[in-house]
């Protein structure tokens, strides 16, 4: 097993079935989660796969955008590239960094991180991309803030997990 990287945190929004997306888009509209994501990641590096970057369509402002891609010719203005998650993490050194997707990158990052910040949407959606199931004995919930979205009508919670 890999050694956890203390500077990496996963940030993800999931539905009841750990769904995170469909057709490379979010299956829900939850402005409160987008605001939470912005507050959490602003001023820090964000690591993402190429398809996640392309679904966003532009570098996110006030963040160091690092895209993980095996395509050595891929580039985009305002974005750094890395050939692997480990190479992307190495670019950040000891600075806090956030892994923001997609499914393959989350699966690779899960053994490496000590903290997860999960927006848990209490509804099921039609998804074709999923966040890996968490091993209950590996993680403990350390914080939870529950809300109901005035915009969407969804119940959701911001949940923090720390590695045991």
Automatic annotation (TrEMBL):
Residues 7-163 form the DHFR domain. GO terms for molecular function: dihydrofolate reductase activity; NADP+ binding. Its EC number is 1.5.1.3. GO terms for biological process: dihydrofolate metabolic process; folic acid metabolic process; one-carbon metabolic process; tetrahydrofolate biosynthetic process. Keywords: NADP, One-carbon metabolism, Oxidoreductase. One of its GO terms (cellular component) is cytosol. Key enzyme in folate metabolism. Catalyzes an essential reaction for de novo glycine and purine synthesis, and for DNA precursor synthesis. Belongs to the dihydrofolate reductase family. This is Dihydrofolate reductase. The lineage of its organism: Bacteria, Pseudomonadati, Pseudomonadota, Betaproteobacteria, Burkholderiales.
């Amino acid at each position: 097993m890999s050694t956890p990287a203390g500077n990496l945190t996963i940030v993800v929004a999931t539905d009841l079935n750990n769904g995170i997306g469909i057709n490379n888009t979010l299956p829900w509209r939850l402005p409160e989660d987008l605001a939470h994501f912005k507050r959490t990641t602003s001023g820090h590096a964000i690591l993402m796969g190429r398809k996640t970057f392309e679904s966003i369509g532009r570098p996110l402002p006030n963040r160091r955008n690092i895209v993980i891609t095996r395509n050595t010719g891929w580039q985009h203005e305002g974005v750094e590239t890395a050939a692997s998650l480990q190479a992307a993490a190495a670019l950040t050194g000891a600075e806090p960094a956030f892994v923001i997707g997609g499914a393959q990158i989350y699966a690779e990052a899960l053994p490496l991180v000590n903290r997860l910040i999960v927006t848990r949407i209490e509804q099921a959606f039609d998804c074709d991309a999923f966040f890996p199931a968490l091993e209950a004995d590996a993680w403990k919930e350390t914080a939870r803030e529950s809300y109901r979205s005035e915009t969407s009508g969804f119940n959701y919670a911001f949940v923090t997990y720390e590695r045991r």
